[in-house]
């Protein structure tokens, strides 16, 4: 039997301050070492929640069906954004068996085999974009030139979203994935994006295409998922696809360019790339704060702490990735590291659906840039790079490069 702590620990107020570049959240760093299962309160929502930071505890909770996502629907758990980022009825807020059913419908589209097939197309897109960068000459802004358009075109093809609509989707993404707007604004934009996919679905019913969205529409017609589920699944996939790869790969380039000895190592040994991408995923603090909470469905003892039925729990994958019990010298970037799998894509039933796609896109982007632009470097001092503020996912606002 695990002994559990009878006294309620003090609550930490966690405003999730703005952090630049690769700076790690100081509260996460401290709690991981001093209070790995802590009580926190954030800027929005009500009450308090548990925050779990150790690698083993994070894995345990995320693999344990006694922690529910569905029970967070309609519960204003303390959090970092005024609205809930994930739409209600969305894949992130369901439990098995609904969750399993929804994942099955899209998992095929995002599996490793599909990612491998898409790699050829992604490589063609990357080649074209990097040739344009080279022709236009330095300096170039990375997200504008490569890390924005590449994932956009890849997900556009996969999902069948017309290229002309990405301007609007990017604007909605900017509002939904930020914490700098009111609840009303957030809800209005979520209604707009849902309306967009409803219209697209009506169109695809009449005129199906050879794409994932048409497959989902057909599945809805066949009764395998509901219309609200179809809409929220599409919104979730598009928002993640547009935001995460762009930020993550831009930050990967920044990280390599500001760790010249690691970059030299990778240039000397290009076959290290897949491993290097894993280490960059582990090392880069790619988000602010934490993702979606879970609710305990019964009393659960974890790491000597009793989490009571009905209490909200957050895990920090970022902190878990820096756990000194698992990663030696965890705050150091080491592209040859291979101690344990990182948790950047999460763990358990809600493990990221886009992991294989993201890995593939990161490899294509980094290998093409390093091969085609061997003199690549920042066009400004590292301190002059501007970083996004008040957003859920971290990344450079702009990344000016020269070569
Ligand atoms: C480097 C880029 C990315 C990172 C670091 C990332 C990370 C994550 C994390 C941490 C989770 C949540 C795990 C949890 O809830 O416990 C997640 C879930 C998810 N991600 Fe990603 N993601 C990335 C890219 C993508 C892309 C490109 C897509 C879509 C094409 C995507 C689609 C999703 C979906 C649909 C979920 C929800 C899965 C579920 O609840 O079952 N992600 N991702």
From TrEMBL:
Coiled coil: none annotated. PROSITE patterns: CYTOCHROME_P450 (PS00086). It comes from Kitasatospora atroaurantiaca. CDD domains: Cyp158A-like. InterPro entries: Cyt_P450 (IPR001128), Cyt_P450_B (IPR002397), Cyt_P450_CS (IPR017972), Cyt_P450_sf (IPR036396). The keyword Oxidoreductase applies. The lineage of its organism: Bacteria, Bacillati, Actinomycetota, Actinomycetes, Kitasatosporales. Pfam families: p450. Keywords: Heme, Iron, Metal-binding, Monooxygenase, Oxidoreductase. The keyword Cell cycle does not apply. Belongs to the cytochrome P450 family. This is Cytochrome P450. GO terms for molecular function: heme binding; iron ion binding; monooxygenase activity; oxidoreductase activity, acting on paired donors, with incorporation or reduction of molecular oxygen.
């Amino acid at each position: 039997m695990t002994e559990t702590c009878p006294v309620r620990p003090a609550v930490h107020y966690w405003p999730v301050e703005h952090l630049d570049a690769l700076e790690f959240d100081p509260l996460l760093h401290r709690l991981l070492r001093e209070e790995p299962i802590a009580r926190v309160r954030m800027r929005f929502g009500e009450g308090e929640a548990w925050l779990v930071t150790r690698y083993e505890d994070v894995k345990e909770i995320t693999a344990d069906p006694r922690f529910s996502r569905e029970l967070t629907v309609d519960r204003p758990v303390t959090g970092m954004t005024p609205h809930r980022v994930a739409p209600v009825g969305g894949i992130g807020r369901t439990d098995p068996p609904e969750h399993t059913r929804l994942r099955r419908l899209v998992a095929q589209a995002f599996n490793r085999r599909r990612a491998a097939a898409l790699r050829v197309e992604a490589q063609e897109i990357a080649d074209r974009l990097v040739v344009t960068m080279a022709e236009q000459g330095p300096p170039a802004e990375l997200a504008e030139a490569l890390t924005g358009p590449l994932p956009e075109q890849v997900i556009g093809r996969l999902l069948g979203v017309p290229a002309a609509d990405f301007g609007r989707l990017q604007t909605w993404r900017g509002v939904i994935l930020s914490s700098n707007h009111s609840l009303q604004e957030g809800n209005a934009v979520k209604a707009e994006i849902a309306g967009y996919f409803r219209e697209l679905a009506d169109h695809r019913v009449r005129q199906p295409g050879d794409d994932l969205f048409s497959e989902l529409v057909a599945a809805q017609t066949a009764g395998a998922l509901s219309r609200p589920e179809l809409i929220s699944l599409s919104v979730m996939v598009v928002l993640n696809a547009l935001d995460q790869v762009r930020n993550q790969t831009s930050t990967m380039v920044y990280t390599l360019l500001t760790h010249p000895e690691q970059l030299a190592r990778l240039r000397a040994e290009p076959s290290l790339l897949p491993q290097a991408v894993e280490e960059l995923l582990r090392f880069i603090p790619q988000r602010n704060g934490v993702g979606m909470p879970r609710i305990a469905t019964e009393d659960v003892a974890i790491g000597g702490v009793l989490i009571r039925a009905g209490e909200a729990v957050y895990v920090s994958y970022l902190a878990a990735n820096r756990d000194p019990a698992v990663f030696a010298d965890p705050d150091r970037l080491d592209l040859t590291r291979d101690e344990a799998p990182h948790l950047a894509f999460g763990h358990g039933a809600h493990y990221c659906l886009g992991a294989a796609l993201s890995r593939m896109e990161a490899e294509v982007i980094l290998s093409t840039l390093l091969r085609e632009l061997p003199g690549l470097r920042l066009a400004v001092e590292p301190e002059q790079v501007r970083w996004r503020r008040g957003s859920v996912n971290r990344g450079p606002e702009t990344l000016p490069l020269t070569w």
